[in-house]
Design brief:
Distance between the termini: 26 Å
Helix content: under 10%
Number of strands: 8
Order of helices and strands: EEHEEEEEE
């Protein structure tokens, strides 16, 4: 189980660091613990999608490939795809460059 993120990404000078976390191929037990299969599904075709997260988002990709560029950071591009569990913190803004159409389970946490 590996994780990747961009820990030094800053939205603005006064904003604490926000980063995307990717858990590569988490074990089935972890997915069951989170209840991933009961989460809603969403999908999109290839393209670029600017996003801002007003709530934390956890998603599990069933298929697809994405490069997410964090707004305000030239260095932070996080790649993830099918089989990855990805967490976007509340307040993060990024652009998804969907290279291969996405199908995913997702869960928003408004807290």
């Amino acid at each position: 189980m590996g994780t990747t993120s961009c820990p030094d990404t800053r939205m603005e000078a006064s904003t604490p660091s926000l980063s995307i976390t990717v858990e590569k191929n988490p074990p089935e037990a972890r997915l069951l613990q989170l209840g991933v299969k009961s989460w809603p599904k969403w999908g999109c075709p290839p393209g670029k999608y600017p996003l801002k997260f007003d709530a934390a988002l956890t998603c599990y990709l069933l298929r697809g490939r994405v490069r997410a560029a964090v707004k305000g950071s030239r260095e932070c591009v996080v790649e993830f795809g099918a089989g990855d569990l990805v967490v976007f913190p509340k307040g993060l803004a990024c652009t998804w460059d969907v290279v291969v159409g996405v199908d995913k389970h997702y869960n928003f946490d408004p807290s």
